[in-house]
Amino acid sequence: MKEKKIYFGTNLKMYKGNRETVKYITELTEAATGWNSEFSIKLFVIPSYTALKDAVEAVKVQIEQGIIAIGAQNMNPNDNGQYTGEISPLMLKELGVQLVMLGHSERRHVMKETDREENEKVLAALKHGFTTLLCIGETLEQKNYNISDEVLRTQLKIGLHGVSAKQLSSLWIAYEPVWAIGTSGIPATAEYADEKHAVIKQCLFELFGEVGKDIPVLYGGSVNPDNANKLIVKPNIDGLFVGRSAWNAVDFDLLIKDALKTILTTTQSGINEFTDIATQLIDKLGGKGNIGALTHCATRIRVVPKNEGKMDKQAIEKIANVKGIFSITNQYQIILGSDIVEKVYDEMQRLLN
Ligand code: PGA
Predict the structure, then answer these.
(1) Ligand 1: distance of its center to the CA of 290 in Å?
(2) What is the pTM of this model?
């Protein structure tokens, strides 16, 4: 189990002063000792600037042991200069901060930051060796215009412009649909989030090739104890970026423990009965390399094969539980039924990754 890293983090926004932050991360790192050691967990907390110094000091040992990382909520890309009120990479480095979050929805939409600005910051953060967490996400209006995928791709392509493959090991992405964030947010369904994570991963692959597949993509936006378990088991979701539901250490501890338990039970049971169907489907679709895009709807798996000639449609129809297959332009839809489609899809994704 150790091989797959699972990410859990929180952005404290403009909440918790210095004292409260220190208390919170102390409690959280203590709780972390009780988390299932079979998992390789990446925990991070992103407090306000004024709490960074004491936060780093308070968990210095745990930072060294890799138990937690402390991050900043923003950063000016310049080392120094006439930028009143801004904080530079050198200042954050001096405090011992490991991570910098950039492009959070509130920075983009309240402070009106642009993709080009995020790009400058991303390049600076990577240059200075910070783990760089770039947040992206579409607004409700963009979602309603059905341009979410284009928006995400644009944010990635501009935001990561000029990033080299060598720097990718320090890059994380958080998908946070703007409409899902905060007290008035509506959480994305696990299916929707997973679908968008697949789009993000595909774009990262197009930008960086195979190494792009290793960039973790975290989901954020009204993650709570009810939806965390559904989200964390999705094949394209590598971790959870939690706001309000994480700001009490006891609650965050419970949410993480529960999510880890769910991953364990899902991997140990459930999924295996669908492995056979998923394996056969991949094989008869012409193998891993022939599957260009994979999504699903309520009852069907949807595949765009790279080369239709490599598919064996008759053999697909004969696979147990497959009720039929038909094509719409270049996309094939395999009818499985609402009871199993998601599980088979998840297992196909797992086998393809
Ligand atoms: P939320 O915040 O979980 O409170 O919606 C998420 C975020 O802004 O990162």
Answers:
(1) 37
(2) 0.79
